[in-house]
């Protein structure tokens, strides 16, 4: 059943898409942007989920989807009016539906009370006059789609096969004359079926010959044709039906089985099913008719039209056997024969859904990316070896290597592009979060999203959801005011939270902006002092105060709220973001709102870095942080405090940080004038001058996690393997700046050995 | 001779299910994602039987069936309608449009193949 499992995976993927379509459509309706098709698309989404769920027997999901679908059907056929309240209900229902899908997938459980309550609400909305359906009514909805065969209105059916045939056809009154009833007593296995097709039967591409073939599967048949109504050739309407069949069937399968053969032509032919032999006189009359004229017109009319051609296979079918489908060749001919002029040749090339997209196992791509990473390292090693031989840069070898480097880079970019995905997959979960948080906190919030199609590597996508969730929660819970407060402040009672993604200088930036009250700086400051996080006499800029909320142990909420206070503060968010080489910061304007800015590298697989030497160790500094490199002159360096120094860079002073000292590579700094200074900028915009001994150059490095292979080390973001095969640490610039701010590290810090 | 079945459904899951059942029974399967696409695939592949969903974007099942039935080249092709509805009015509408028969979802593979056999020459 592997194939079925694979389809199930597809189904859940499709569900994700459909749920996104559903939500997107409902949001469009909410904003009043729906065209006529939106409600249809919304209906289809639920309908398709139900259809697939039915195929996999996911009963609770089917049941809920059915109730949901019924309401949408009423809405789209204008039986009930669309109102903002209804849209809000539909949105909440879509959340419950999403829960059902997750539960069906084995991810989480559905709160059945919530689901039942929602189903009841949906039913009331569908039909306000109906009494609120008790919860127990739900299973009735789920009754198998196969309706029991309607009881046949017939006198002598006690002995009939009563099997549920699984089809819901209409009851049909059968008249039984006395003779037939007598015959039934004589021979219970013989039936006479009289079929008089109407032209509609043929119009729907049904076919008498096939009906006879089906009958012959029940047992031996003898078919006789009554063509007395057939006009002469010149009066024949090729689209009309003229003949009547009388078929003697010998079967022990009962009337239901016979009737089932005619299920699809119900109403398109006059059908009589009687037990026993047809009256002898009638049969004889028919036989007499058949022997001479019937076959003749059939042969003549062969090239005309299928309806009349139904007469053709008569002789074959008369054979009393469950014959292998006799191919009614003549009937087929009109369909197959005319070599269809390719009506729309241009459209033949339209790719089918399976042709335009290749689905690849992500593991294969991951493997490819790993291999390309090795290739990059290898290429760097080769370049370094060649360099060691002192080969002139203009030589063919060096130029060839340059080209190789170029190619390697392009391959790497292309491979990374394969794995890149739009952030949409994360963003689309957020409207629901906003609704829920707003409900829980009694705020009114509208989410506006921007840049959902911004692409970023899969490794990053997976790590975006948590921080975005936290930022949004925070924005609604702490940022937005209550509707009353907003009204009092002259604002729209509904707050707006904007979630945006964009690319900026080789990184992905996520912004969460609210139009709330902004950070209460006085309060933040006093709390930080009270909690001993900062010393009371410290003067801080507004920006620094805002960012105090990221300090461990900080929480401004008077009481731990349901929403933000889930034991995870912004400090944890900040740390997890930093662990990815990302930064998070906040800016705020009192009364106007706050903006969280999160930036992450586009990929967690490679990094452009500057390779430097510090106290005999090789380090990599992310290029994105470096503003410029310079060799300081002695007069530009000024002492500050007992041991600190600052560097005058143009008109400002920046703290001078010796990387070797910060990371405990050495006990005392050499004179900064001996080394090279790299002017770096942290995520919060603060600048520092990092002192290194020498610069080796710029290089793309493949990131290897230090945490996974060793442990987290303060001041170090990750590690890499250099061209010469040695391990080098990648510096966490922000951490180094902060380490320095907080003073020299405690002596217990482990000494870093890069070659560990 | 291998028979070709055209399946028209906007749900990938349903197309995959149909493909599995039909390919397993020895049919050649071609697919389309909606009625419009169905008409294009129709001209390219000339299927022996068509199975179509009703609710689809662009051109729904009713419209698709009608379009097939007015084309002299295709009107004799049997069309089975997939329907989840126990709603007889939808089935009736599909029949009026010219559907040859119907398959109630969720279908089991045997029932599906059985239905095709019943309508396919």
Automatic annotation (TrEMBL), chain B:
Positions of post-translational 4-aspartylphosphate modification: 53
InterPro entries listed in its UniProt record: Bact_response_regulator, CheY-like_superfamily, Sig_transdc_resp-reg_receiver
Gene3D superfamilies documented for this protein: 3.40.50.2300
Positions of the Response regulatory domain: 4-120
Keyword match Phosphoprotein: yes
Pfam families: Response_reg
UniProt KW keywords: Phosphoprotein
Listed SMART domains: REC
Superkingdom of the source species: Bacteria
Name used for this protein in its record: Two-component system chemotaxis response regulator CheY
Higher taxonomy: Bacteria, Pseudomonadati, Pseudomonadota, Alphaproteobacteria, Caulobacterales
């Amino acid at each position: 059943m592997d194939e079925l499992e694979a389809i199930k995976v597809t189904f859940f993927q499709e569900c994700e898409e459909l749920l996104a379509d559903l939500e997107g459509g409902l949001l469009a309706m909410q904003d009043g942007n729906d065209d006529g098709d939106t409600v249809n698309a919304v209906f289809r989404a639920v309908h398709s989920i139900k259809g697939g769920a039915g195929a996999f027997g996911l009963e609770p999901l089917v049941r809920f989807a059915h109730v949901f679908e019924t309401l949408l059907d009423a809405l789209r056929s204008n039986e009930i009016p669309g109102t903002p309240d209804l849209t809000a209900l539909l949105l909440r229902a879509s959340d419950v539906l999403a829960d059902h899908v997750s539960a069906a997938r084995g991810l989480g459980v559905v709160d059945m009370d919530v689901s039942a309550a929602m189903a009841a609400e949906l039913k009331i909305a569908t039909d306000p006059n109906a009494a609120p359906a008790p919860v127990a009514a739900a299973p009735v909805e789920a009754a198998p789609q196969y309706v029991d065969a309607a009881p046949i209105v017939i006198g002598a059916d006690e002995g009939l096969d009563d099997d549920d045939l699984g089809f819901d056809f209409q009851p049909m009154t059968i008249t039984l004359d006395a003779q037939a009833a007598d015959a039934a007593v004589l021979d219970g296995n013989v039936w006479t079926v009289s079929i008089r097709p109407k032209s509609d039967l043929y119009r729907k591409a049904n076919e008498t010959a096939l009906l006879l073939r089906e009958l012959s599967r029940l047992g031996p048949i003898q078919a006789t044709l009554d063509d007395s109504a057939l006009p002469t050739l010149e009066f024949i309407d090729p689209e009309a039906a003229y003949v009547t069949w009388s078929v003697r069937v010998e079967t022990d399968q009962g009337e239901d089985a016979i009737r089932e053969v005619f299920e699809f032509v119900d109403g398109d032919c006059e059908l009589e099913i009687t037990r026993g032999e047809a009256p002898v006189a009638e049969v004889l009359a028919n036989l007499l008719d058949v022997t001479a004229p019937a076959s003749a017109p059939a042969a003549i009319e062969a090239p005309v039209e299928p309806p009349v051609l139904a007469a053709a296979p008569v002789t074959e079918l008369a054979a009393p056997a469950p014959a292998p489908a006799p191919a009614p060749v003549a009937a087929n001919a009109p369909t197959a024969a005319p070599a269809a002029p390719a009506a729309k040749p241009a459209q033949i090339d339209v790719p089918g859904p399976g042709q335009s997209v290749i689905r690849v196992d992500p593991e294969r791509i991951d493997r490819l990316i790993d291999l390309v990473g090795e290739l990059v390292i290898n290429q760097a090693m080769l370049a370094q070896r060649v360099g060691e031989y002192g080969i002139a840069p203009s030589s063919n070898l060096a130029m060839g290597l340059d080209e190789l480097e170029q190619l390697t880079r392009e391959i790497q970019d292309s491979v990374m592009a394969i794995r890149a995905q739009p952030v949409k997959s994360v963003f689309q979960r957020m409207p629901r979060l906003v609704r829920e948080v707003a409900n829980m906190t009694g705020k009114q919030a509208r989410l506006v999203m921007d840049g959902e199609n911004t692409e970023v590597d899969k490794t990053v996508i997976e790590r975006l959801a948590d921080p975005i969730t936290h930022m949004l929660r925070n924005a609604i819970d702490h940022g937005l005011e209550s509707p009353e407060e907003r009204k009092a402040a002259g604002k729209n009672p509904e707050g707006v939270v904007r979630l945006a993604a964009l690319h900026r200088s080789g990184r992905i930036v996520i912004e969460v902006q609210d139009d709330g009250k902004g950070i209460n700086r006085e309060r933040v400051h006093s709390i930080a002092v009270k909690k001993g996080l900062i010393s009371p006499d410290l003067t801080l800029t507004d920006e620094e105060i805002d960012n105090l909320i990221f300090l461990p142990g900080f929480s401004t909420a008077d009481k731990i709220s349901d929403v933000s206070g889930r034991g995870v503060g912004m400090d944890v968010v900040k740390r997890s973001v930093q662990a990815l080489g990302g930064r998070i910061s906040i800016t705020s304007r009192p009364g106007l709102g706050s903006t969280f800015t999160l930036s992450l590298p586009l990929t967690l697989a490679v990094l452009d870095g500057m390779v430097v030497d510090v106290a005999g160790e090789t380090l990599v500094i992310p290029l994105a942080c470096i503003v410029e490199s310079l060799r300081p002159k002695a007069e530009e360096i000024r002492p500050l405090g007992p041991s600190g120094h600052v560097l005058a860079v143009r008109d400002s002073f920046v703290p001078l940080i010796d990387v070797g000292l910060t990371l405990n590579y050495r006990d005392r700094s050499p004179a900064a004038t001996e080394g090279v200074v790299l002017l770096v900028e942290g995520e919060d915009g603060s600048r520092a001058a990092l002192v290194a001994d020498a610069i080796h150059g710029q290089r793309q490095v493949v990131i290897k996690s230090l945490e996974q292979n060793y442990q987290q080390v303060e001041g170090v973001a990750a590690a890499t393997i250099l061209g010469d095969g040695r391990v080098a640490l990648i510096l966490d610039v922000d951490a180094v700046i902060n380490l320095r701010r907080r003073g020299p590290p405690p002596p217990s810090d482990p000494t870093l050995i890069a070659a560990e | 001779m291998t028979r070709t079945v055209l399946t028209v459904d906007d749900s990938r899951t349903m197309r995959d299910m149909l493909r599995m059942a039909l390919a397993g029974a020895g049919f050649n399967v071609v697919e389309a994602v909606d009625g419009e696409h169905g008409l294009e695939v129709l001209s390219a592949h000339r299927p022996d039987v068509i199975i179509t969903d009703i609710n689809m974007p662009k051109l729904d099942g009713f419209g698709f069936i009608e379009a097939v039935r007015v084309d002299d080249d295709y009107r004799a092709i049997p069309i089975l309608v997939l329907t989840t509805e126990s709603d007889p009015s939808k089935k009736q509408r599909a029949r009026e449009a010219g559907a040859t028969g119907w398959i109630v979802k969720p279908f089991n593979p045997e029932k599906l193949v059985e239905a095709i056999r019943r309508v396919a020459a």
